[in-house]
Amino acid sequence: VTSVEAALDALGVTSGALPAEAYAELDDRGFVVLPEVIDPDWLEQIRDRLAELQEREGRAAAHEVGGGQPGADLLADLINKGEMFERMLREPRVLAGVRHVLGDFRVNSLNARAARPGEGDQHLHSDCGAARGDGRFKICNSIWLVDDFTADNGATRAVPGTHRSGQLPAEVMDDVFAPNPDEVLLTAEAGTVIVFNAHVWHGGTRNRTAAPRRGLTLSFCRRDEPQQLNQAEYIRPAVYERLSPAERYLLDV
Length: 253
Ligand SMILES: O=C(O)CCC(=O)C(=O)O
Ligand SMILES: [Fe+2]
Description:
By secondary structure, the protein is α+β, with helices and mostly antiparallel strands. It has helices at residues 4-10, 20-28, 40-57, 83-86, 92-102, 169-172, 231-234, 237-242, 245-251, and strands at 31-34, 72-75, 105-115, 139-145, 156-158, 184-185, 193-197, 202-204, 213-222. Helix 1 (4-10) packs across helix 9 (245-251). It is globular. 42% of the residues are buried. The model has no long low-confidence stretch (mean pLDDT 97). Bound molecules: 2-oxoglutaric acid and fe (ii) ion.
């Protein structure tokens, strides 16, 4: 396997994996909501494993990406921390959406983020600067809902179409923590995946409930961009052995 096209072919990803409207939403709004990607058994495996890892890693959690974040618990390098995470590399709908946004791509990172009760609000941001308007985007994320994202538990907010604005929130907003008149709150049920162009202005909101709001972010970058986590450096031999050539190509290991 020596190209993304060959890798996607081997993984059974055709352009028909998503309906035409989904590609149009990625173009126009910059994100698309895909319900029922994670089935209940898989979701339970993910939840159990995240709890285990959080307990085991404690204060060292997310050291691979330079440590934690105020208001949220992070876990990083999840590709190497359980088969239930490896499986995320094979979801045709997600891969079809990412190919549409980035063309030639590889995995950027796989992290978990749990907004803690009473905390977790982020400023509106792009993960990778303002897009230059040439249609060449740098990062496309997929956020996998481990819990329901509700109106009050810290669901991600996003401002549709801002990946085409050529601007950053801080350039046009007085207060990037304040609500933006055009933002939408991405509420959906656990098991949903939201694929979003990381140039879209977005951010976690405050979790006003008593339980953490957990999500996984499987991020992809254009193949000529640096990865958030160098997958070749971190890949564990047992994981490498289990992965197919196509999956290895997507990770660039
Ligand atoms: O977890 C979320 O809702 C979004 C997190 C995010 O955008 C980030 O950490 O860059
Ligand atoms: Fe972000």
